[in-house]
Write a structure and sequence with these properties.
- This protein has about 160 residues and is mainly alpha-helical.
- It has helices at about 15-40, 50-70, 75-80, 95-110, 110-120, 130-135, and strands at about 85-90, 135-140.
- It contains six helices and two strands, in the order H-H-H-E-H-H-H-E.
Length: about 160
């Protein structure tokens, strides 16, 4: 059987700029929520270096958010808005374990995660933690459900 005889599923990798805008939407939304919940912890700023403690708590909040959203839906809110999602390399939904590993890099060390991906795997559209977790970010095909047709009236 030749290579042309195989039936391939086509996955369109998401562009870096689209991924950035999705991250920015998530960053703003999650930061607003975290600011509400982290304000009560300002009383312990004298016990710890607040900068590092605050960074850890916020990063942990992002880790929980991205792992939960991408582990359940394959998308964070930002990814939903921009019609992209996280999948395994075959385009199938990711497990919670893969979502956790994939989210570690962007929650705690995003600049390093991206730089290693860009420089070490040029043209692959992978961050380091995408590679480690076996995940990719792809465009979603937002269509009407089967048997449904949307009519858009002209205004």
């Amino acid at each position: 059987m030749g290579e042309n005889d195989l039936d391939y599923e086509t996955l369109h990798l998401a562009r870096w700029d689209t991924r950035f805008w999705a991250w920015l939407v998530d960053f703003i939304l999650v930061s607003l929520v975290l600011n509400i919940f982290l304000n009560p912890f300002h009383f312990i700023s004298g016990l710890f270096s607040w900068h590092y403690f605050d960074y850890f708590l916020r990063s942990l909040g992002f880790l929980v958010y991205w792992t939960a959203m991408e582990g359940v839906y394959g998308q964070s809110i930002g990814k939903m808005v921009l019609n992209i999602k996280v999948t395994d390399r075959a385009g199938k939904p990711v497990s919670f374990q893969k979502a956790l590993v994939e989210s570690l890099g962007k929650s705690f060390i995003l600049p390093i995660d991206c730089l290693i991906g860009w420089l070490g795997m040029p043209g692959k559209k992978l961050r380091l933690f995408n590679r480690v977790s076996g995940t990719i970010v792809v465009k979603t095909d937002y269509r009407e459900p089967a048997g449904i047709r949307y009519i858009r009236d002209k205004e």
